[in-house]
Amino acid sequence: MSAIGIDTHKATLVACAIDELGTAADEAQFRNDPAGHHELAAWVGRVAPGATIGIEGSSTFGAALARMLVAAGLAVRDVPPHLTRHGRSATRRAGKSDPGDALAIARVTARETGLPPVRLDDRSRHIGLLLEAREALVHDATRSRNRLHAHLLVLAPGYGERIDRLVSGVALDRASRLLRGRPGLEAELARDLIAELRRLDGRVARLTRRLTMLVGPDPLLGLPGIGILTAARLIAETGDVRRFRSPDAFAALAGLAPIPASSGQIQRVRLSRGGNRQLNRAFYVIALTQVWHHPPAKAYVARKRAEGKTWREAMRCLKRQLVRTVFRLLQEGQLGLAEAA
Asked: Is 239 exposed, middle or buried (CB count within 10 Å of its CB: 0-12, 13-18, 19+)?
């Protein structure tokens, strides 16, 4: 057997083993729980001992299974969903089904030798989890601030002349003093929101400190335009940078590689609307910050504008230029961690 593909779901796992020709040799379905994981591992030992196992969803529904298989000494790879989508049509199975997806995953695993190992409890995954938790708290805090603002407009018209914004501890203290002694339900709700905002802001600050400790003195922080949160996003979304064969492959993941759209004698490219949008946004933040504060970036964009490019086109060019530098810095950071370990 050459490979095994596993399609993961909340309650079930569907596995398919293929031979060297890519033909399905055996298929099976298991429960997505500890007992099902052990049954799947036993099935792997029977039908394809030593085969490479590809899992789609190894960081979500398949995370527990991936940890167990890696602990058992098996070769486990993470299969990106877009590769499965491309391979599904070649299975010659009508419609979409879990066994068909598992077959496509197995074929991708056998064909793509550069698939990354599954991400378990590594640094990039921890950073990603902290970022997700922080963003959820920031979203909750924004909603609470909007509600507090609405209450204050009713309780204290014109309060904005005395309190600039509700984003700092000082502003919340002033709002609290403004509400002191005011009777009524709306004032009570506003005071509750102030207490809630203080709690949320404290949790956001704690998560930010943890992110700062994890990102540490990463080489990315030496690039103008990158702060702790942007560096954390780049590390989390990239994962193991060794899975990219070149900066161009990394640019394709970020949706920054132009897509050929030529026909006959007309040679042209079009803008990519795909890729990892979180990663794309991180590059936009870097580029925008550099255009504001970094003279070489200002000069570069000005030169592109003088060539006739629009502002957006010039910014895309700058983002594309940043890819190689960020890719090299990610490699340096990962190498430094490996040497420290």
From this structure: buried
